[in-house]
Structure formats: C-alpha cells, structure tokens
Automatic annotation (TrEMBL), chain A:
Protein's name according to its UniProt entry: FAD binding domain-containing protein
Entry-linked PANTHER family: XANTHINE DEHYDROGENASE FAD-BINDING SUBUNIT XDHB-RELATED (PTHR42659:SF9), XANTHINE DEHYDROGENASE SUBUNIT C-RELATED (PTHR42659)
GO molecular function, one term: oxidoreductase activity
Coiled-coil stretches: none
Native source organism of the sequence: Hymenobacter qilianensis
Domain named FAD-binding PCMH-type: residues: 4-235
UniProtKB/TrEMBL annotation, chain B:
CDD domains linked: fer2 (cd00207)
Domain 2Fe-2S ferredoxin-type: 62-138
Name under which the protein is recorded: (2Fe-2S)-binding protein
NCBIfam families with a match to the protein in the record: TAT_signal_seq
Sections of the chain in a coiled coil: none
Pfam family, one: Fer2_2
Molecular function in Gene Ontology: 2 iron, 2 sulfur cluster binding; metal ion binding; oxidoreductase activity
Keyword list, A-Z: 2Fe-2S, Iron, Iron-sulfur, Metal-binding, Oxidoreductase
C-alpha cells in the first residue's frame, strides 16, 4: 500500500468539503493518484484495491466516525432508514428487518464472511468496485480503468463469473449482492454533497457500462451516501433471496436473485425480481415479473418465470451455464417468497 | 443516449477522467444539488453542529495509544499500516497471523471491543479507543482460555497458521452464545479458511468447550 | 513471509495433468494390459510426475506401458502438493476401474478383490464397505428427484518412503530431565508429540516429561518433510536412542539396587526390579546416581529389518480406500460431499488423534481439489488471475462432511516402531471417489477437475451416453 495522509472526518459537512474524488475516478489510468483524495468507510474494498496497487490515493478521508449514520430507524409508513455506516452485521441481526425485509437479511447473511460483515458498511458495500479479475489486477489496464481493451471478452479469456446480460461493453458483474435485495425492495439512496441532499432510486443510481464504462454509479465528487430508505412493504408481501456460489462457506455469487411478491386472493398482484451477478448492475427481470402477474404462485408459474428471467441472454465463452442456474434459483426464490 | 453534444464532450475529455459534465447528461441525472431536501437521518443536524474539527495526519508516523489485551501501548505508526502489521511488526505480537492479507481467510482475526474483525483489513490509525484483544490476550493468569484448552485436547491445530484466527472466532461465538449448535460453529468459522483441514476438530473442540459432547462422525445426525 | 497470493504466483502449484489411460481385460474382469500416457505442467521446472499409480496399484496386471511427459510452461514451477502425481493418477485410474466393473457387470469392489493383490486393501474394502453401507448402493442415475444422491469409492496408495539421513540425540540429565534433539521439523503433523511419546514409552515416563527440541540444524540431521516419511524415518532412531540412554541409567543404578541391570525395567516413572516389584527407585532418584551430569545416545535410521519393500507383506505401499456419498443438484450443478468413510493403514499408529487429523486433512484437501480448486491462467497473457484466497477457492467450514475413519493396523516388524506415514495416502483417493460418487448420482461421468456446477450442468446437458447398468 502506498503512503497517504489520513483525515478523520467528524461531520458530514466537513467530509463533503474535503475535495474528494469518487474511487472510480481515482483509479483511472490517466488520473493523477498523487492528488486524489477518497472516502473510506469500513475499508474492506478500499484496502483491497490499494493492496493490489490499482488504487493509490494521496489522502484518505475516514468517514467511520461520522455521527448518526450507524443506525437503523423504522419511520413507520415512510419506511425504514438504514444509515450508510450501518454494518452488514447490524443489518443481519436486526429483528425488524428480518420480519419485513426477509430477502434483505438473507442477502446480508450470505454476503462475505462474519469478520468482513462486522467491518463492512452498507454505503461501502453499494459503492464497492467490481471483482472482474482483470480489473483488479494491476497488469491489466482495461476499459473500466480508462484503457482501450476489455480483456474479459477476448477469445479464451477468463469470464466464467461474468455477466450474461448487458455484457457487450464490459461484462464485470456488480459485486454488491446486497444491492440485489435492496433494488428488489425499491430502496432509495440519499446522497449528500456540498450543495445539499438528493434522493435517487437505487436502481437508477447504478450506471450501465453503455452509459459510462468507467463507473458503476452516478456518485459525484464530494458526495456521500448518507442513508438508504426502504419503503414499507404492503401487507401480504413475501420476499426471498437466494445466492448461488460454488461454495457455501462464503463465495462471490455466481448468480443471485431477490424476489418480492404481493399476492391477493391467491394471485400475484405485484412482483419485483432482481438478478445479481447477471449483469454489470443489479438487473430487474421484467419478463419474469410479467410472467407472474395475475397468476397463482406455484411450481409451474415459478418455473415459467425462471425461464423468462434470462430472456435475451448473450453468454460469453465460459458462462452459458449461468442461464439454467438463474432459471433454477429464480423459480425457487419465487416459491419461497410466495409461501407467505 | 446518442446526444452528439455529449459524445463530443466525452471525447474531448477522454483521458482526463475527472470531468463529469458529459457523464452526468448521459446518466440522465440532474446535477447534484438539483433536488434539495433534508436528510432522513435523525438528529444529524445537531450532531453535526457539535462536531470537533477533523485531524489530518501522515503520511509519516504519528503517535497513537492502543489498548491491547488490557495494556495501553504507545506506538508511532503510519496511516497506511494495518492493525496486523502494527501488532506483528511494531509490537511483536506475532500470534496474529497474516495469510491472505485481503480479508479472505480470517487468519488475522482479532477482537475490537469483543467483535471479531480482520486485522489485515483494519487500519491501525482507525482503531481509536476501541479495545483490541489478540490471541495473546485470551489466556488469563497463565491459564489458557477454555477454547484454547479444547483445541489442544482435540488436536484442532495442525500447521497452526489458521489457528489463532479460528480460536478468536470460536471464543467470540461462545461469548455471544454459550450453547451453540454445530451449525452455529460452522457459521462462526465460515470465513476462517484452514488449509490443513482441522475443521472437524475445531467443531469438536468448540462444542466441547461449551460442554457439548460431539464427535466428527456425528456430523450428519447433528445437522441443524 | 509470503502471503497466499505470492505463494501461488511465485512458489509453484500442483501440476495440472492430462491422463490417457487404456485398460484391457477379459470378460471376467481379469486385467490383461494397461497403457498410460500422461502429461503434467511442470511450469519452468521439471518432474511434474503424474503417472505412476496406474502401474503400481493393480499388480495382477501383466502388461503395462507408460509414458509420462512434462509440459513446460512459463507459469511458475510445478510444486509438491500432498502426494505429488498420485491424486491425478488415481482420478483417472479409479474411474476407469469403475467403468471396467460396470462393463463386465460386477460390483466395483468385487472387481478390485479380483485384480488387487494387496491383502491389506482387501481387508480395508471389507471393513470400509460395511461401515459405509456399500450394499445399499443404487444403480447409476437411479436416485429420484432434483437433488440426487450417489456413492462411490476409490483406492489410494503411497510409497513407504524412508529417509536414511534421520538421526536424533536423546539426553538424560542428572536432575531426571530427558531431551530429544533432531533437526526434523513439525509442519503440523505432530512429530513433536510423537517423539515425546516414543521416548517416554521407552523410559516409562509421560510424554510431558520429555522435552523435544527440533527444527534447528544444530541438532542431528532429520528427514526432510516430504513423502510422508517423517514418522517412519525418525521414530525408530528415537526409540533406539532412548533405549540406549535407558540402558546407561540401569547400569548406573543396578549396583545400588542389588539387581543386575538386565533384571530392571522402566515402569510408570520408576525403575523396578522385574522379579520383585517392591524393589524400585523413582526415575528422578535414579538419575541422580548417574556418574556424569548427563548421558546421551545418538542414533540414526537403520535399514528395515529384512530390507525394504518386502514382497508379500505390503508390496511396498501404504494406502487405503475411501467411500464418498454426494448429493448433486441437477438444476444448478452443485455438488456437495455429505459423508466419507476412509479405511487406511500406516503400519503401527503411534498417535491416533494426530493420525485422525492427518486423514481428515487428506480427505478435506481432496474434496477441496475435487470440487473447488483451480488455477486460472489467462491464456492470452499468462497471468494467474485468481491468486488470492477469495478467488482461488478452497474448502471452508460449511463444506465439511461427516468423516469416519477406520485404521487397519499392520505389524510388519520392519523397524523398532513399525510406524509409517499417512498424510499423502489420505489425499490420493478422494477426488476419484468423489467423481465415482457423482457418476453414481447422475449417471454421467465427469473427467475433469474441479467438478464445478458449470461442468456438471454441461455434462448433464450433453446427449446421454449409453448408460451402464449395474
Ligand atoms: C472475502 C470477501 C468476500 C466478500 N463477499 C461479498 C459478498 O458476497 N457480497 C457482497 O455484497 N460483498 C462482498 N464483499 C465485499 C464487501 O462487502 C465490501 O467490500 C464492503 O461491503 C465494503 O464496505 P466498506 O465499508 O468496507 O467500504 P470501503 O472499502 O470503506 O469503501 C468502498 C467504496 O465505497 C466508498 N464509500 C464508502 N462509504 C461511502 C459512503 N457512505 N458514501 C459514498 N462512498 C462511500 C469508498 O470511497 C470506496 O470507494 C466481500 C469482501 C471480501 C473481502
Ligand atoms: S469486463 Fe469490464 S472490468 Fe473486466 S476487463 Fe472487461 S472492461 Fe475491464
Ligand atoms: S490475513 Fe487477514 S483475512 Fe486473511
Ligand atoms: S492448521 Fe494449517 S491452516 Fe489450519
């Protein structure tokens, strides 16, 4: 790790006045790392990038001690506020969340390791950079780092964990498996910058490579995620999340899915189905959602929705096997969510 | 998305990276500050008003005082030093092991205020007032912690590289949950990688330390 | 110290291997010939050595032709990784033997009874099958439902290697303390404890009474850690040295006890007259009667009694058989090992607990290799892309099955401890057994490791080959 200056911010106002750059910009090949100042929360992703020598900021602003951002607050019908510094472990343990947002607590408890969950924050998790092996390797200056090539889509390249949808420009999947569930619940992120506060649906906060391959979201310089708001689910909502990896102990998702369903009189009235590790952003499976509306939830309808989930997939050389996996886990998650 | 102005702007900025205007348009978002509102975080304004001025230190060494295993240690550290490095190199507390140095094996597990974290992914400068417990701090008055004793009795260590981390995970589990199930032990150690394959004995030892009889051949029956 | 990433990139890896194996047999299963051509990635080094097991496992085979090739790559040297070459060889051999059994219509273990000369392996098959419940085995692919169960078995073998450069010194001090010194090192296999046990037993003491000093080249040369040879090499000289020191002590105390030294024995921390148990001296008191401050003996490993590799006893190999039960999710391709029974031998076991740990380790690394581990080299640029531990996957706590170990003890009277190593032979069979179990579950063979969801799904998607019937 390079040497850097350390500023321990004590308020959001100070933090957003430190002339910080989003990490995505600090990592560009032509960026001047010696002048970049970045934010760090739990540090799991920041230190990983720095140890791999793909990020070398001159100054780090620690936001771990900002006040009030580490609470989970139920605001009644307005929803539930999750402060940006809430750790994954806090989310995992929260009884109310477990009751009302089961898919989220499932996602959190299957993310990373217990030790990582104790340190990693919600804001940092949403902001983590992709785990494409080429992107994280200092020897490869790929498109995402401001280079001219995508190494993952060359013949023979290592892309078995990459995207099967929306993968034509850059096929790195988003690393936040928690965002899969957050998007399914219609979460909104609150962003605070020097000029004030804005709120954006998380789904729209993420940016596809076609819009800008060099970043995964639309955070601005000096801007912090301060809060994530989860709308209150309607009565009769059921949800489930399944993460599929090659290993159960902990593993990056090969495929994950969050399903949030509303049912009335035995029929599905609203469905939110989001695929993780399928595309460069958490992806709503609109065709799968449409396949369920107006239908009862059963093996047959769930299977049909599972098949529909990856409609239009364009697998790469080594990842076509993800298609049937998505079909299976979407089906299973729908059936579980429908049990409520 | 095919806005010619945007395209020309992006190419004009190619390589500079930090210019945001073209990107913002592309992303279809009004510039920051376009929608002004107050934060949904309760009590933020008051807390903000009371905040002290921030400190900036480094990149050279700064003196900090760490609370480790009940002692206070003054040590001069660089902001870039991880807690694992400071423990091992500056303080000669080499019981904590570094295997992956990336948060992926938990060999370096220590407790911060009784919570297990990876010391390789924690900056020492950030520890602040939190109490650090390392493997060296588990034994009390010359007597091993019950989990350590059980590890010895059940041969739950082979090469020993993962062992300090395993012990810290398992001892922490028993602190939170004195009567865990096999599944609880598996969860508590789900981030602790052991190359040698001590897991069955780690499970046995941890359950034994909790007074629960269990042998590795029962794994199936005990599955929760 | 290197971290894991640096180890992977700079130090070396278990060689990848391609094995082409052909077997000729009569209709009753009798072997007539085997031909092996194997290739291993030696990286920038030599000696990938990935082929001998096919030659040595089934000695009833009259004709063997083998060719082994090292493939040089610009990718770091091939490195020793628990039983170099043998797991790769067993993965090919033990699947092919199962295929042969299916073809000639006999049970996979019954065929091995016919073609395997080893009496030890026969006994291991018998006790292992019984413990495992082999007789409940179903026909391949007949398990119902989406998640299918299957069982399989495979044998392992590893040479009984001995390092003649294995020596140690045992010292007894006038204060009664006992030390053993050797430059042998403990990688985690427990040789430190084992040495204390051997010396203590010889002198009628407890292992905690013996101070073990190892891992320092100032001490007499010890065996290198490799080839599972440590215990078999260093325990015989340890026992002999302890015996010689003991004799010096008995000689020193015999006059005062009024008994001939040959009439004295070490029992429970005392020196006792064999003919009169009432006549005894504590070990510590006895040591005070030594004429000098210390006595010592240095011993080295001697040739096995009767020479190495006695045919008819063990064919020069330790080994075992492992039985594995898996579940395979046919929708996602996920394989989980649920249960393992391992029947093994290593001469005379000295420390059953450490032995169990070694076998656990062999099995768990075997499962890890069978299902998860893979070095991904980028074909275009030659970099290892998954050098870190979140990318290079090894088995974790949730992947640990129930493991049941049976030790079949074997007393060959070849050395003063009769002990042999276990660590490597415990790793050889596992991946092959997992592969045979996966086949039994889904009725399709997978010839490539690791057996990932991707490979299982691809295998299931292929038009079914003609399925054998058991
Ligand atoms: C072994 C391992 C396994 C993992 N498995 C998973 C998994 O299964 N699923 C998953 O989702 N993740 C996984 N992760 C990733 C991990 O969850 C993230 O790295 C972590 O959540 C990042 O949070 P942090 O607080 O440590 O962020 P930091 O590293 O501090 O920051 C990450 C990024 O976010 C920015 N940032 C942080 N907070 C804010 C904020 N409030 N506002 C604006 N920007 C901010 C930083 O500038 C930086 O760019 C894994 C990590 C490891 C090491
Ligand atoms: S997939 Fe994306 S991150 Fe990976 S090499 Fe290609 S451009 Fe870079
Ligand atoms: S060394 Fe810290 S997690 Fe591996
Ligand atoms: S004991 Fe060797 S890594 Fe666990």
């Amino acid at each position: 790790m390079n040497a850097f200056q350390w500023t321990d911010a004590t308020s959001v106002k100070q933090a957003t006045g430190q002339n910080t750059t989003p990490v995505a910009d600090a990592m560009l090949v032509n960026a001047k790392p010696e002048s970049a100042t970045i934010f760090k929360a739990g540090g799991v992703d920041v230190l990983d990038l720095m140890k791999e020598h793909v990020l070398a900021p001159a100054r780090i602003v620690g936001i771990g001690n900002l006040p009030k951002l580490d609470a989970i607050r139920n605001a009644g019908k307005d929803g539930t506020h999750l402060g940006a510094l809430v750790t994954l472990a806090q989310l995992e343990r929260d009884g109310d969340l477990h009751k009302s947002y089961r898919a989220l607590t499932e996602a959190v408890s299957h993310a990373a390791t217990p030790q990582v969950r104790n340190a990693a924050t919600l804001g940092g998790n949403i902001m983590q950079r992709p785990h494409c092996w080429y992107f994280r390797n200092e020897n490869f200056k790929c498109l995402k780092k401001g280079g001219t090539v995508c190494f993952a889509n060359q013949p023979g390249a290592e892309n078995k964990y990459h995207a099967i949808l929306g993968n034509q420009t850059c096929s790195a999947v988003h690393g936040s498996s928690i965002s899969t569930a957050l998007v399914a619940f219609g979460a909104q992120v609150e962003l605070t910058g020097p000029q004030g506060v804005r709120r954006v649906p998380l789904e729209q906060f993420f940016v596809t490579p076609e819009k800008d391959v060099k970043r995964e979201n639309s955070i601005q310089p000096n801007e912090l995620i301060t809060d994530v708001l989860l709308p209150t689910p309607a009565a009769g909502t059921g949800s489930w999340y399944i993460k599929f990896g090659e290993r159960e102990s902990y593993d990056w998702a090969l495929a994950d899915v969050a399903v949030v369903l509303e049912q009335q009189n035995g029929r599905c009235t609203k469905a939110s189905i989001v695929l993780g590790a399928a595309a460069p952003v958490p992806l709503r499976a609109a065709a799968a959602e449409a396949a369920l509306i107006g239908k009862p939830i059963n093996e047959e309808t769930a299977r049909a929705a599972g098949q529909a989930a990856t409609t239009g997939a364009t697998p790469l050389e080594h990842n076509a096997y993800k298609v049937p996996i998505f079909a299976a886990i979407v089906k299973r998650a729908i059936l579980k969510a429908g049990e409520v | 998305m095919k806005d010619p102005e945007e395209n020309s702007e992006q190419s004009a900025n190619a390589g500079r990276g930090l210019s945001r205007r073209g990107f913002l348009k592309g992303a279809g978002i009004t510039a920051a500050g376009g929608v002004l509102m107050t934060s949904g975080i309760a009590g933020l304004a008051d807390a903000e008003a009371a905040a002290p001025a921030p400190d900036t230190v480094g990149p050279g060494r700064t003196s900090v005082t760490l609370k480790i295993n009940g002692d206070k240690k003054k040590v001069a550290i660089e902001p870039r030093q991880t807690l694992a490095e400071v423990l091992r190199i500056e303080l000669n507390l080499t019981g904590t092991k570094v295997v992956c140095d990336r948060g992926a094996c938990s060999a370096c597990t220590v407790w911060l205020d009784n919570t297990p974290v990876n010391s390789c992914m924690t900056l020492a400068i950030e520890v602040g007032k939190r109490e650090i417990t390392t493997i060296e701090g588990l034994a009390k008055n010359g007597k091993l912690h019950p989990v350590q004793e059980a590890f010895v009795a059940h041969d739950a260590s082979m090469c020993g590289f993962c062992t300090p981390g395993m012990v810290m995970s398992c001892a922490s589990l028993l602190q939170r949950n004195p009567k865990p199930t096999l599944d609880d032990v598996k969860t508590a150690t789900s981030g602790n990688l052991c190359r040698c394959g001590t897991y069955p004995k780690v499970f046995e030892a941890t359950l034994a330390a909790a007074g629960i009889a269990y042998s590795q051949t029962q794994a199936q029956a005990a599955k929760g | 110290m290197l971290d894991r990433r640096e180890e992977h990139v700079a130090v070396g890896n278990r060689p990848n291997s391609v094995q082409n194996l052909r077997i000729g047999a009569k209709k009753d299963g009798t072997l007539t010939a085997m031909q092996l051509t194997s290739y291993g990635t030696a990286g920038v080094g030599l000696g990938a050595g990935v082929g001998w097991i096919a030659e040595t496992m089934y000695l009833t085979n009259p004709n063997f032709k083998g060719e082994q090739y090292d493939v040089l790559t610009n990718a770091g040297p091939g490195a020793a990784f628990r039983a170099p070459g043998a797991p790769q060889g067993a993965f090919a051999l033990e699947q092919l033997i199962d295929e042969l059994a299916e073809k000639v219509g006999v049970d996979a273990l019954a065929l091995r009874d016919k073609i395997d000369k080893s009496e030890m392996r026969r006994e291991q098959r018998r006790v292992g099958a019984e413990r495992f419940g082999w007789s409940k085995r179903q026909a391949p692919g007949s398990s119902p439902g989406v998640v299918k169960r299957g069982v399989g078995a495979a044998q392992s073998e590893w040479g009984r290697f001995i390092d003649m450069d294995s020596s140690c010194e045992v010292r007894l001090h006038q204060d009664g303390s006992v030390e053993i010194m050797s430059s042998v090192q403990d990688l985690g296999t427990g040789i430190r404890t084992v040495l204390a046990q051997v010396v203590a037993e010889e002198l009628g003491l407890q292992p905690t009474d013996v101070t073990v000093r190892i891992g320092d080249t100032n001490y007499p040369p010890g065996p290198g850690s490799g080839g599972s040879k440590t215990t078999g090499s260093i325990t015989p000289p340890a026992r002999t040295a302890a015996y010689k020191v003991g004799q010096q002590l008995l000689t020193a105390v015999a006059p005062s006890m009024g008994v001939a030294a040959s009439e004295l024995a070490f029992v429970g921390g005392k020196i006792v007259a064999k003919s009169n148990a009432g006549k005894s001296l504590s070990f510590r008191e006895a040591a005070q009667k030594l004429p000098t401050q210390q006595v010592s003996a240095t011993e080295k490993r001697k040739d096995d009694y009767g020479g190495f590799f006695r045919p008819g006893v063990s064919f020069g190999q330790s080994g075992g058989i492992q039985f594995v039960e898996v579940s395979v999710d046919t929708e996602t391709g996920y394989v989980k090992v649920e249960r393992v029974v391992g029947a093994h031998d290593c001469g005379r076991p000295i420390n059953p607990l450490a032995l169990e740990s070694q076998i656990n380790g062999g099995i768990l690394q075997g499962i890890s290799w069978a299902l998860y581990e893979n070095r991904h080299m980028d074909r275009n640029y030659g970099h290892m892309m998954n050098a870190n531990l979140d990318q290079y996957k090894i088995l974790g706590s949730r992947e640990v099955p129930q493991i049941d170990i049976i030790m079949v003890e074997e007393y060959t009277a070849t050395s003063s401890t009769d002990a042999l190593g276990i660590a490597e032979s415990a790793n050889v069979a596992t991946a092959a057994a997992v592969a045979n179990a996966v086949y039994n579950a889904i009725g399709v063979r997978i010839y490539e490791l690791p057996i990932t969801p991707e490979r299982v799904l691809n295998a299931l998607a292929k038009p079914k080959q003609k399925l054998g019937k058991v």
